[in-house]
Amino acid sequence: xxxNELNKIGKIVGFLILGFTILIVILFLIxxxxxxxxxxxxxxxxxxxxxxxxxxxxxxxxxxxxxxxNDDKQVVKPNxxxxxxxxxxxxxxxxxGKGEEIGVLDTTTKKVKSLSYSSDNLQNLKSEFxxxxxxxxxxxxxxxxxxxxxxx
Length: 152
Description:
Layout: H1 3-42, E1 45-47, E2 52-56, E3 63-67, E4 74-76, E5 80-85, E6 89-96, E7 99-106, E8 111-116, H2 119-128, E9 138-139, H3 140-143, E10 146-147, E11 150-151
Antiparallel strand pairs: 1-2, 2-3, 3-4, 5-6, 5-9, 6-7, 7-8, 10-11
């Protein structure tokens, strides 16, 4: 065999090894993501309108709102404390480093509007989005099932 032929064979083998390695990495990442999603769903969820759900981010909390069929893409940041909903809107109260905030998720447009928490801001959001005034926020932990210390 000539050097030119050996170079061609070497390139082919190199590309095959590179392709195989990339395939293994991609399969590992897909498998790992699937395990993480399954683990999150096994901890339980609260069903909301239009394929949205409240998920527990880790075994000890916090809670987030994510879309079920969109790789569980987070729509509302974690640390949700209270929640209420109707057939279209989800009202939530959450806390972050800046303090508590109140917000509304429109489950049809996927838009979120948040304000600092106060009862006036809550009433303003309900009026702005035409949400019934009798819908009241409930603690996430009171809505979450707990059976033998395992969430479902």
